[in-house]
Amino acid sequence: MLLKLALLLEGYFNVFRVFHYLTFRAILGVLTALIISFIIGPAMIRQLSRYKIGQSVRDDGPQSHFSKAGTPTMGGALILVSIGITTLLWADLSNRYVWVTLLVTLGFGIVGFVDDYKKLVLRNSKGLAARYKYLWQSVFGFAAAIFLYSTAVLPAETTLIVPFFKQIMLNIGWVYVLLTYFVIVGTSNAVNLTDGLDGLAIMPTVLVGGALGIFAYASGNIKFAEYLGIPFLPLAGELIVYCGALVGAGLGFLWFNAYPAQVFMGDVGALALGAGLGVIAVLVRQEIVLMIMGGVFVMETVSVMLQVLSFKLTGKRIFRMAPIHHHFELKGWPEPRVIVRFWIITVILVLCGLATLKLR
Q1: pLDDT digits (tens, 9 = 90+) for 35-78
Q2: Are 19 and 238 in contact (CB under 8 A)?
Q3: Is residue 115 within 8 Å of 129, Cβ to Cβ?
Q4: Are 250 and 202 in contact, with CB atoms under 8 Å apart?
Q5: Which residues pair with 72 in a beta bridge?
Q6: What is the DSSP track for 199-242?
Q7: Whole-angstrom distance, CA of residue 51 vs CA of residue 62
Q8: What value does the mean pLDDT take over residues 152-160?
Q9: Can you give the pTM of this predicted structure?
Q10: What pLDDT was estimated at residue 56?
């Protein structure tokens, strides 16, 4: 919206030409989303507290979590509002990549909102039944996958890129639809599983989102794409504005979510942010790199899968509690130590992912 106004004013004032630069609008995206979060965050937390929309705590979890009971949750709505407004203000709304990313994010956010609402407002401990949650995730995931496959113009838009190798680019045809579906839905649930400690999920999301913004910018610039040996995707560059909004909104939320948290994200935020990361990775053709940079999300998901599988096959548990961050808590690690160490791991993995741009 504001981008269109700025481009209209360009004919009268040369200074408005700066809005043609993606990097400038990405910076504006970070700052705008951050400011929106700071402005509406306190009011949203007060309203959540007023309506007693608070966190419930498992009896079999770490004892340090008992004090968290009643802490306002569904704070992920703050992130979605900030991302949505910022993207609409500064992104090129004629770009279909922007709309797909935004709609997938909001779609998964709605699924998470319904789940949170049932659990926290209607006091239904089970929330949205797992089969219905997965059904609607699948609907949005497949809808995005089919739309992207059917509207692809360039072969590079549906080609699987293998990091560290310039020449390995696989034309996977209709398998692209399945891959896209699994990346979006899988990442959504992986971030949701990670969201168990104060700030644990949001900082890795910010780091991975920022790194994907770099991939988007490079993929959308023909000179950078050619130099780095990655596919040139003309529409991808605009995604850096969404990534900037995600970074700003995430940092704004972390201001209130840092230990000890004033508000929790809830499924409304975790499912949406994970889906957002997944669809961006698909659009910039970096699904494998997403698995590297989001290694913490992968580790959390695999720990749950192994725990369930081991218990069903042997009746024994591998970890004291899954996801794995609770295992370390029960081993005696203080919560802040677990959080910061997982952040450090993410920083390392994100740098490894970024290194694939050059190491080919």
Answers
A1: 999 999 999 999 888 776 656 655 555 655 555 666 888 899 99
A2: no
A3: no
A4: yes
A5: 54
A6: TTTHHHHHHHHHHHHHHHHHHT-HHHHHHHT----TTGGGHHHH
A7: 27
A8: 92
A9: 0.93
A10: 62
